[in-house]
Design a protein that fits this description.
This protein is α/β, with parallel strands linked by helices and 181 residues long. Helix content is 41%, strand content 28%. A hairpin with a 4-residue loop joins strand 3 and strand 4. Helix 2 packs across helix 3. The protein is globular and about 50 Å long.
């Protein structure tokens, strides 16, 4: 599946997976532990997610229909000229995470977006990405990226397997692009 130019440009700005081993999380950590560790190591985290990010807010409060909602982390990306909402999940990606992020993005677009900025985008960081669900939900069309994070490097054999899989996926994408050009 080929992404339109702006969607491809967006997905190319985010990497997957993110290696968060520097957080030294304890076994059985919670989302709050993950968030707190990220904030303690913010500089390293920003360097891991990429250049151009600026921290805006933690636990961004949004009141919708009289209920409080809290976005884990809010960043601004200078080159993209847009807010980047980051939602942290300690488990496997679930389809309902998309609806939660869509709600946050629509609220940010309505109440936080400044003149001259592009629409906000979302990054859902999960311990496991559920690639087929993400593909079926066409997350990229809604400005939402799902990426895995690793809190430690996998064993060499697993790392080799992941690299080979990523190589085959990249090769397939390049072949599809050649066919459509």
């Amino acid at each position: 599946m080929q992404l339109p130019n702006n969607e491809h440009r967006l997905s190319g700005r985010f990497k997957d997976p993110y290696l968060l081993d520097f957080l030294n999380l304890p076994i059985g950590y919670l989302e709050n532990d993950l968030e707190s560790a990220i904030l303690r190591e913010l500089e390293k985290f920003i360097l891991e997610i990429g250049k151009g990010f600026a921290f805006v807010e933690r636990q961004k409060r949004m009141i919708i229909d009289g209920e409080d909602y809290y976005l884990d982390l809010l960043f601004y990306h200078r080159k993209l000229r847009r807010l980047v909402a980051i939602e942290l999940k300690i488990g496997k990606f679930q389809a309902n995470h998309k609806g939660q992020m869509e709600l946050y993005l629509k609220w940010l677009n309505k109440y936080e977006r400044q003149v001259g900025e592009e629409a906000p985008v979302g990054l859902i960081l999960c311990a496991e990405a559920s690639r087929e669900q993400v593909e079926l939900l066409e997350m990229h069309k809604d400005g939402i990226i799902v990426a895995e994070y690793l809190t430690e490097l996998p064993p060499k054999q697993e790392l080799e397997k992941r690299l080979h899989k990523a190589y085959l996926e990249a090769k397939e994408i390049l072949e599809k692009r050649k066919l459509t050009e």
